[in-house]
Design goal:
With 73 residues, the protein is mainly alpha-helical. 58% of the residues lie in helices and 8% in strands. It is built from four helices and two strands, in the order βαβααα. Helix 1 links the parallel strand 1 and strand 2. The model has no long low-confidence stretch (mean pLDDT 92).
Length: 73
């Protein structure tokens, strides 16, 4: 039930949308500052609907099944 913290990149936003917390990429000091700012904000709990979405979206059986279907064609 933890919300992921990701670098603010198009691929992460594509897969996780509003479900993650994002910080900018930067130097060590910039990343530390961004993380400190993030953890100083109020906690944003993961809702049951978000948990269900993540479970369905990243279900390994679905991912690997689709992979092998494409490989074996």
């Amino acid at each position: 039930g933890a919300r992921p913290v990701m670098f603010d990149r198009p691929d992460a936003r594509h897969w996780l949308g509003d479900h993650a917390e994002y910080i900018p990429e930067g130097s060590h000091a910039e990343v530390v500052t961004a993380l400190a700012h993030l953890v100083s904000r109020p906690y944003r709990p993961v809702t049951p609907a978000e948990s269900a979405w993540a479970t369905a979206t990243f279900d390994w059986r679905t991912i690997i099944g689709g992979f092998w279907e494409r490989v074996l064609r």
